[in-house]
Protein backbone atom coordinates (compact mmCIF):
# COMPACT_ATOMS: atom_id res chain seq x y z
CA UNK A 1 0.00 0.00 0.00
CA UNK A 2 2.75 2.47 0.81
CA UNK A 3 5.39 1.49 -1.75
CA UNK A 4 4.42 4.21 -4.22
CA UNK A 5 3.97 6.95 -1.63
CA UNK A 6 5.88 10.06 -2.58
CA UNK A 7 7.70 12.31 -0.17
CA UNK A 8 5.54 15.33 0.65
CA UNK A 9 7.19 18.77 0.47
CA UNK A 10 8.40 20.05 3.83
CA UNK A 11 6.39 22.76 5.53
CA UNK A 12 8.50 25.82 4.64
CA UNK A 13 8.29 27.44 8.07
CA UNK A 14 8.80 24.27 10.11
CA UNK A 15 11.68 23.39 7.77
CA UNK A 16 13.19 26.76 8.64
CA UNK A 17 12.95 25.83 12.33
CA UNK A 18 14.91 22.65 11.74
CA UNK A 19 17.56 24.61 9.88
CA UNK A 20 17.68 27.11 12.74
CA UNK A 21 18.08 24.37 15.36
CA UNK A 22 21.00 22.90 13.41
CA UNK A 23 22.81 26.26 12.98
CA UNK A 24 25.84 26.43 15.33
CA UNK A 25 25.98 30.29 15.14
CA UNK A 26 25.64 31.43 18.81
CA UNK A 27 24.15 34.77 17.70
CA UNK A 28 21.36 33.18 15.63
CA UNK A 29 17.87 34.73 15.81
CA UNK A 30 14.67 32.98 14.74
CA UNK A 31 12.20 35.43 13.19
CA UNK A 32 10.53 32.69 11.12
CA UNK A 33 7.72 31.25 13.19
CA UNK A 34 4.59 33.13 14.19
CA UNK A 35 5.09 32.93 17.92
CA UNK A 36 5.20 35.72 20.51
CA UNK A 37 8.30 35.71 22.69
CA UNK A 38 8.95 38.00 25.65
CA UNK A 39 11.91 40.36 25.94
CA UNK A 40 14.07 37.47 27.20
CA UNK A 41 13.28 35.50 24.06
CA UNK A 42 11.08 33.10 26.05
CA UNK A 43 7.59 31.83 25.32
CA UNK A 44 5.56 33.56 28.05
CA UNK A 45 3.33 31.79 30.55
CA UNK A 46 0.63 34.36 31.20
CA UNK A 47 0.05 34.98 34.92
CA UNK A 48 -3.72 34.71 34.41
CA UNK A 49 -3.23 31.30 32.79
CA UNK A 50 -0.91 30.16 35.60
CA UNK A 51 -3.53 31.23 38.16
CA UNK A 52 -6.31 29.41 36.31
CA UNK A 53 -4.12 26.33 35.97
CA UNK A 54 -3.40 26.30 39.71
CA UNK A 55 -7.11 26.63 40.43
CA UNK A 56 -7.94 23.71 38.12
CA UNK A 57 -5.19 21.47 39.44
CA UNK A 58 -6.26 22.05 43.04
CA UNK A 59 -9.71 20.71 42.22
CA UNK A 60 -8.87 17.73 40.06
CA UNK A 61 -11.94 16.46 38.28
CA UNK A 62 -12.67 13.15 36.54
CA UNK A 63 -11.69 13.23 32.87
CA UNK A 64 -14.93 12.45 31.08
CA UNK A 65 -15.76 13.21 27.45
CA UNK A 66 -16.78 16.75 26.67
CA UNK A 67 -19.93 17.39 24.65
CA UNK A 68 -19.22 17.31 20.88
CA UNK A 69 -19.38 21.10 20.69
CA UNK A 70 -17.14 21.55 23.73
CA UNK A 71 -17.50 23.22 27.11
CA UNK A 72 -20.70 25.29 27.16
CA UNK A 73 -19.16 28.01 29.36
CA UNK A 74 -16.21 28.23 26.97
CA UNK A 75 -18.40 28.56 23.87
CA UNK A 76 -20.41 31.27 25.61
CA UNK A 77 -17.26 33.14 26.64
CA UNK A 78 -15.95 32.99 23.07
CA UNK A 79 -19.23 34.41 21.81
CA UNK A 80 -19.00 37.30 24.27
CA UNK A 81 -15.49 38.08 23.15
CA UNK A 82 -16.18 37.87 19.43
CA UNK A 83 -19.69 39.34 19.19
CA UNK A 84 -19.82 41.49 22.32
CA UNK A 85 -21.28 40.47 25.66
CA UNK A 86 -25.10 40.63 25.52
CA UNK A 87 -25.14 41.76 21.89
CA UNK A 88 -28.38 41.53 19.95
CA UNK A 89 -27.16 38.76 17.66
CA UNK A 90 -26.35 36.60 20.69
CA UNK A 91 -29.60 37.37 22.45
CA UNK A 92 -31.47 36.39 19.31
CA UNK A 93 -29.74 32.99 19.40
CA UNK A 94 -28.29 33.53 15.93
CA UNK A 95 -24.75 32.27 16.58
CA UNK A 96 -23.69 28.62 16.70
CA UNK A 97 -20.30 28.33 18.41
CA UNK A 98 -18.26 25.15 18.81
CA UNK A 99 -14.96 24.61 20.58
CA UNK A 100 -12.24 23.67 18.08
CA UNK A 101 -8.63 22.52 17.97
CA UNK A 102 -7.03 25.91 17.64
CA UNK A 103 -7.88 28.39 14.92
CA UNK A 104 -6.87 25.78 12.36
CA UNK A 105 -9.48 23.40 13.74
CA UNK A 106 -12.12 26.12 13.56
CA UNK A 107 -11.27 26.78 9.92
CA UNK A 108 -11.36 23.08 9.05
CA UNK A 109 -14.69 22.39 10.77
CA UNK A 110 -16.12 25.41 8.94
CA UNK A 111 -14.62 24.28 5.63
CA UNK A 112 -16.07 20.78 6.03
CA UNK A 113 -19.49 22.20 6.86
CA UNK A 114 -19.44 24.52 3.84
CA UNK A 115 -18.33 21.69 1.55
CA UNK A 116 -21.36 19.68 2.56
CA UNK A 117 -23.72 22.61 2.07
CA UNK A 118 -22.36 23.88 -1.23
CA UNK A 119 -19.85 21.46 -2.77
CA UNK A 120 -19.47 23.52 -5.96
CA UNK A 121 -18.52 26.75 -4.18
CA UNK A 122 -15.09 28.24 -4.79
CA UNK A 123 -12.86 29.71 -2.13
CA UNK A 124 -11.00 33.01 -2.38
CA UNK A 125 -8.06 33.78 -0.11
CA UNK A 126 -5.92 36.91 -0.03
CA UNK A 127 -2.78 37.19 -2.15
CA UNK A 128 -0.69 36.46 -0.18
CA UNK A 129 -2.23 34.66 2.79
CA UNK A 130 -1.32 32.37 5.65
CA UNK A 131 -0.02 29.39 3.66
CA UNK A 132 -2.28 26.91 5.40
CA UNK A 133 -5.43 28.65 4.12
CA UNK A 134 -4.88 27.33 0.62
CA UNK A 135 -3.85 23.86 1.77
CA UNK A 136 -6.68 23.56 4.28
CA UNK A 137 -9.48 24.59 1.91
CA UNK A 138 -7.97 22.54 -0.93
CA UNK A 139 -7.87 19.50 1.32
CA UNK A 140 -11.50 20.12 2.24
CA UNK A 141 -12.20 19.67 -1.48
CA UNK A 142 -12.48 23.26 -2.68
CA UNK A 143 -10.90 24.97 -5.63
CA UNK A 144 -8.96 27.86 -4.09
CA UNK A 145 -8.03 31.10 -5.88
CA UNK A 146 -6.86 34.46 -4.62
CA UNK A 147 -8.12 38.02 -4.50
CA UNK A 148 -5.55 40.84 -4.83
CA UNK A 149 -4.33 42.11 -1.48
CA UNK A 150 -0.74 43.19 -0.95
CA UNK A 151 0.82 45.91 -3.03
CA UNK A 152 4.60 45.64 -2.90
CA UNK A 153 5.03 49.02 -4.58
CA UNK A 154 3.18 50.97 -1.88
CA UNK A 155 3.62 48.43 0.90
CA UNK A 156 -0.12 48.77 1.30
CA UNK A 157 -3.28 47.08 0.05
CA UNK A 158 -4.48 46.91 -3.56
CA UNK A 159 -7.87 47.86 -2.26
CA UNK A 160 -9.62 48.74 -5.53
CA UNK A 161 -8.46 45.50 -7.13
CA UNK A 162 -9.51 43.53 -4.06
CA UNK A 163 -12.96 45.08 -4.11
CA UNK A 164 -13.34 44.48 -7.85
CA UNK A 165 -12.42 40.80 -7.40
CA UNK A 166 -14.99 40.39 -4.64
CA UNK A 167 -17.68 42.11 -6.70
CA UNK A 168 -16.90 39.84 -9.67
CA UNK A 169 -16.99 36.60 -7.66
CA UNK A 170 -19.84 34.15 -8.26
CA UNK A 171 -22.65 34.07 -5.67
CA UNK A 172 -21.88 31.54 -2.94
CA UNK A 173 -18.10 32.04 -3.20
CA UNK A 174 -16.43 31.66 0.18
CA UNK A 175 -14.15 34.61 0.94
CA UNK A 176 -11.53 34.08 3.63
CA UNK A 177 -10.73 37.40 5.31
CA UNK A 178 -8.16 38.13 8.02
CA UNK A 179 -10.16 39.95 10.70
CA UNK A 180 -7.04 41.74 11.96
CA UNK A 181 -3.24 41.54 11.92
CA UNK A 182 -2.99 40.13 8.40
CA UNK A 183 -0.60 37.19 8.16
CA UNK A 184 1.90 37.54 6.46
CA UNK A 185 1.83 41.23 5.48
CA UNK A 186 0.74 43.08 8.64
CA UNK A 187 -1.46 45.29 6.39
CA UNK A 188 -5.02 45.67 7.69
CA UNK A 189 -8.07 47.28 6.12
CA UNK A 190 -9.35 50.49 7.68
CA UNK A 191 -12.89 50.50 9.17
CA UNK A 192 -14.07 52.48 6.10
CA UNK A 193 -12.55 49.88 3.76
CA UNK A 194 -14.21 47.11 5.76
CA UNK A 195 -17.54 48.84 5.21
CA UNK A 196 -16.97 48.57 1.47
CA UNK A 197 -15.88 44.93 1.74
CA UNK A 198 -19.00 44.07 3.71
CA UNK A 199 -21.16 45.81 1.07
CA UNK A 200 -19.34 43.97 -1.74
CA UNK A 201 -19.88 40.61 -0.01
CA UNK A 202 -23.52 41.45 0.39
CA UNK A 203 -24.03 42.65 -3.18
CA UNK A 204 -22.28 39.63 -4.69
CA UNK A 205 -23.92 37.09 -2.35
CA UNK A 206 -20.59 35.84 -0.96
CA UNK A 207 -20.00 33.76 2.16
CA UNK A 208 -17.46 35.58 4.34
CA UNK A 209 -15.22 33.44 6.55
CA UNK A 210 -13.32 35.61 9.00
CA UNK A 211 -10.13 34.23 10.44
CA UNK A 212 -9.44 35.86 13.79
CA UNK A 213 -6.14 34.46 15.03
CA UNK A 214 -4.80 37.66 16.60
CA UNK A 215 -7.65 39.43 18.38
CA UNK A 216 -6.06 41.96 20.71
CA UNK A 217 -2.71 42.14 18.94
CA UNK A 218 -3.67 44.97 16.59
CA UNK A 219 -5.37 47.87 18.34
CA UNK A 220 -7.18 46.16 21.21
CA UNK A 221 -9.72 43.41 21.86
CA UNK A 222 -12.79 45.52 21.02
CA UNK A 223 -11.10 47.45 18.19
CA UNK A 224 -9.88 44.28 16.49
CA UNK A 225 -13.31 42.70 16.91
CA UNK A 226 -15.19 45.70 15.51
CA UNK A 227 -15.16 44.22 12.01
CA UNK A 228 -17.38 41.40 13.27
CA UNK A 229 -19.95 44.01 14.32
CA UNK A 230 -19.90 45.42 10.80
CA UNK A 231 -20.68 42.00 9.30
CA UNK A 232 -23.42 41.38 11.86
CA UNK A 233 -24.98 44.77 11.10
CA UNK A 234 -25.14 43.89 7.40
CA UNK A 235 -27.44 40.96 8.12
CA UNK A 236 -25.13 38.59 6.22
CA UNK A 237 -24.63 35.00 7.32
CA UNK A 238 -20.94 34.32 7.90
CA UNK A 239 -18.36 32.31 9.81
CA UNK A 240 -15.64 33.31 12.28
CA UNK A 241 -12.75 31.15 13.44
CA UNK A 242 -11.05 32.09 16.69
CA UNK A 243 -7.60 31.14 17.94
CA UNK A 244 -6.30 31.58 21.49
CA UNK A 245 -2.89 30.18 20.62
CA UNK A 246 -1.28 33.61 20.62
CA UNK A 247 -3.56 35.72 22.80
CA UNK A 248 -3.25 33.25 25.71
CA UNK A 249 0.15 31.85 24.73
CA UNK A 250 -1.49 28.41 24.70
CA UNK A 251 -0.11 27.14 21.38
CA UNK A 252 0.15 23.46 22.25
CA UNK A 253 -3.17 23.23 24.09
CA UNK A 254 -5.03 23.73 20.78
CA UNK A 255 -7.71 26.15 21.92
CA UNK A 256 -9.92 27.77 19.34
CA UNK A 257 -13.48 27.95 18.12
CA UNK A 258 -15.78 28.30 15.15
CA UNK A 259 -18.81 30.57 15.23
CA UNK A 260 -21.46 30.56 12.51
CA UNK A 261 -23.82 33.51 12.29
CA UNK A 262 -27.23 32.35 11.07
CA UNK A 263 -30.48 34.02 10.02
CA UNK A 264 -32.52 33.01 13.07
CA UNK A 265 -32.64 30.73 16.12
CA UNK A 266 -34.12 27.80 14.23
CA UNK A 267 -31.46 27.94 11.52
CA UNK A 268 -28.77 28.14 14.22
CA UNK A 269 -30.05 24.93 15.83
CA UNK A 270 -29.94 23.13 12.50
CA UNK A 271 -26.46 24.44 11.66
CA UNK A 272 -25.18 23.41 15.10
CA UNK A 273 -26.50 19.89 14.55
CA UNK A 274 -24.49 19.69 11.29
CA UNK A 275 -21.37 21.12 12.93
CA UNK A 276 -21.64 18.34 15.51
CA UNK A 277 -21.66 15.73 12.76
CA UNK A 278 -18.50 17.23 11.22
CA UNK A 279 -16.77 17.11 14.60
CA UNK A 280 -18.12 13.71 15.61
CA UNK A 281 -16.85 12.10 12.40
CA UNK A 282 -13.42 13.74 12.65
CA UNK A 283 -12.30 13.56 16.28
CA UNK A 284 -15.52 12.95 18.21
CA UNK A 285 -15.09 15.71 20.78
CA UNK A 286 -12.48 18.27 21.78
CA UNK A 287 -9.88 18.13 24.58
CA UNK A 288 -10.65 19.60 27.99
CA UNK A 289 -7.74 21.37 29.61
CA UNK A 290 -6.95 24.37 27.40
CA UNK A 291 -10.57 25.38 26.99
CA UNK A 292 -11.07 25.10 30.76
CA UNK A 293 -8.15 27.48 31.26
CA UNK A 294 -9.52 30.01 28.78
CA UNK A 295 -13.08 29.73 30.11
CA UNK A 296 -11.82 30.21 33.68
CA UNK A 297 -9.84 33.31 32.74
CA UNK A 298 -12.61 34.85 30.63
CA UNK A 299 -15.34 34.28 33.23
CA UNK A 300 -13.42 35.23 36.40
CA UNK A 301 -13.42 39.06 36.51
CA UNK A 302 -10.02 39.43 38.19
CA UNK A 303 -8.35 36.97 35.81
CA UNK A 304 -10.09 38.53 32.85
CA UNK A 305 -8.74 41.95 33.81
CA UNK A 306 -5.29 40.45 34.24
CA UNK A 307 -5.49 38.81 30.80
CA UNK A 308 -6.48 42.06 29.14
CA UNK A 309 -3.51 43.73 30.77
CA UNK A 310 -1.11 40.98 29.76
CA UNK A 311 -2.43 40.97 26.19
CA UNK A 312 -1.97 44.75 26.07
CA UNK A 313 1.57 44.20 27.31
CA UNK A 314 2.29 41.86 24.39
CA UNK A 315 0.70 44.29 21.92
CA UNK A 316 2.69 47.24 23.24
CA UNK A 317 5.96 45.32 23.29
CA UNK A 318 5.50 44.45 19.62
CA UNK A 319 4.80 48.10 18.85
CA UNK A 320 7.91 49.16 20.75
CA UNK A 321 9.96 46.67 18.74
CA UNK A 322 8.55 48.05 15.49
CA UNK A 323 9.50 51.59 16.50
CA UNK A 324 12.96 50.47 17.63
CA UNK A 325 13.52 48.55 14.39
CA UNK A 326 12.73 51.66 12.32
CA UNK A 327 15.11 53.72 14.41
CA UNK A 328 17.92 51.18 14.29
CA UNK A 329 17.58 50.48 10.58
CA UNK A 330 17.78 54.21 9.86
CA UNK A 331 20.79 54.52 12.17
CA UNK A 332 22.44 51.60 10.39
CA UNK A 333 22.10 53.47 7.10
CA UNK A 334 18.96 51.99 5.54
CA UNK A 335 17.56 54.75 3.37
CA UNK A 336 13.95 55.50 2.47
CA UNK A 337 10.64 55.65 4.23
CA UNK A 338 10.48 52.93 6.89
CA UNK A 339 7.18 54.05 8.38
CA UNK A 340 5.46 50.98 6.91
CA UNK A 341 7.05 48.94 9.71
CA UNK A 342 5.16 50.86 12.40
CA UNK A 343 2.00 51.02 10.30
CA UNK A 344 1.80 47.23 10.01
CA UNK A 345 -0.29 45.43 12.63
CA UNK A 346 0.26 42.28 14.63
CA UNK A 347 3.15 39.91 14.84
CA UNK A 348 4.48 40.12 11.30
CA UNK A 349 6.23 42.51 9.03
CA UNK A 350 6.67 42.10 5.33
CA UNK A 351 10.17 43.51 5.17
CA UNK A 352 10.24 43.87 1.40
CA UNK A 353 13.49 41.87 1.30
CA UNK A 354 13.90 39.37 -1.54
CA UNK A 355 14.30 35.61 -1.13
CA UNK A 356 17.98 36.06 -1.93
CA UNK A 357 18.40 38.71 0.77
CA UNK A 358 16.54 36.49 3.27
CA UNK A 359 18.91 33.63 2.44
CA UNK A 360 21.92 35.90 2.99
CA UNK A 361 20.47 36.93 6.35
CA UNK A 362 20.43 33.27 7.33
CA UNK A 363 23.76 32.12 5.96
CA UNK A 364 25.85 35.19 6.81
CA UNK A 365 24.18 36.49 9.96
CA UNK A 366 22.11 33.65 11.44
CA UNK A 367 18.93 35.77 11.14
CA UNK A 368 16.09 33.45 10.09
CA UNK A 369 13.01 34.84 8.36
CA UNK A 370 10.73 33.45 5.67
CA UNK A 371 11.85 33.70 2.01
CA UNK A 372 8.77 35.85 1.28
CA UNK A 373 10.48 38.54 3.37
CA UNK A 374 8.18 37.99 6.34
CA UNK A 375 9.75 38.49 9.73
CA UNK A 376 8.13 37.94 13.10
CA UNK A 377 8.45 41.23 14.97
CA UNK A 378 7.18 39.48 18.12
CA UNK A 379 10.45 37.55 18.24
CA UNK A 380 12.57 40.71 18.37
CA UNK A 381 13.82 41.80 21.79
CA UNK A 382 16.14 44.33 23.37
CA UNK A 383 19.02 41.85 23.12
CA UNK A 384 18.73 40.74 19.49
CA UNK A 385 17.36 43.83 17.75
CA UNK A 386 20.72 45.54 17.20
CA UNK A 387 22.16 42.48 15.50
CA UNK A 388 19.02 42.06 13.38
CA UNK A 389 19.01 45.72 12.27
CA UNK A 390 22.73 45.60 11.44
CA UNK A 391 22.28 42.39 9.45
CA UNK A 392 19.30 43.77 7.49
CA UNK A 393 21.22 46.95 6.74
CA UNK A 394 24.09 44.86 5.34
CA UNK A 395 21.88 42.92 2.90
CA UNK A 396 19.48 45.77 2.05
N1 LIG B 1 -4.95 31.73 10.94
C1 LIG B 1 -3.89 32.52 10.85
C2 LIG B 1 -3.95 33.72 9.97
C3 LIG B 1 -2.74 32.21 11.56
O1 LIG B 1 -1.67 32.99 11.45
C4 LIG B 1 -2.72 31.07 12.39
C5 LIG B 1 -1.53 30.69 13.20
N2 LIG B 1 -0.29 30.80 12.62
C6 LIG B 1 -3.86 30.28 12.45
C7 LIG B 1 -4.97 30.64 11.72
C8 LIG B 1 -3.91 29.01 13.24
O2 LIG B 1 -3.93 29.16 14.59
P1 LIG B 1 -3.81 27.90 15.56
O3 LIG B 1 -2.37 27.71 15.84
O4 LIG B 1 -4.61 28.30 16.74
O5 LIG B 1 -4.40 26.73 14.87
TrEMBL record:
Enzyme class: transferase
GO MF annotation terms: transaminase activity
Residue ranges of domain Aminotransferase class I/classII large in the record: 28-392
SUPFAM superfamilies: PLP-dependent transferases (SSF53383)
EC number(s) per entry: 2.6.1.-
Keyword set, alphabetical order: Aminotransferase, Pyridoxal phosphate, Transferase
Subunit structure: Homodimer.
Protein name as it appears in the record: Aminotransferase
Organism: Rubrivivax benzoatilyticus
Lineage: Bacteria, Pseudomonadati, Pseudomonadota, Betaproteobacteria, Burkholderiales
Amino acid sequence: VFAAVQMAPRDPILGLNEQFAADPNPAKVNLGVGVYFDDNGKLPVLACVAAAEKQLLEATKPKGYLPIDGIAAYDKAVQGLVFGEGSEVLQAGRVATVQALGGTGGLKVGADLLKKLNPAARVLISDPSWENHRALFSNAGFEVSTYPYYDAATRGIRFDAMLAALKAAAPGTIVVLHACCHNPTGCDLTPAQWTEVVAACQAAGLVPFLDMAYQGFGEGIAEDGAVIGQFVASGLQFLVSTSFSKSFSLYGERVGALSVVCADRDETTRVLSQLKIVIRTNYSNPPTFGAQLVATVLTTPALRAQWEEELAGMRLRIRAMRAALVEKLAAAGVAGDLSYITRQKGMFSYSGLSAEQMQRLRSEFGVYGVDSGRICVAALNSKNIDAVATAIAKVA
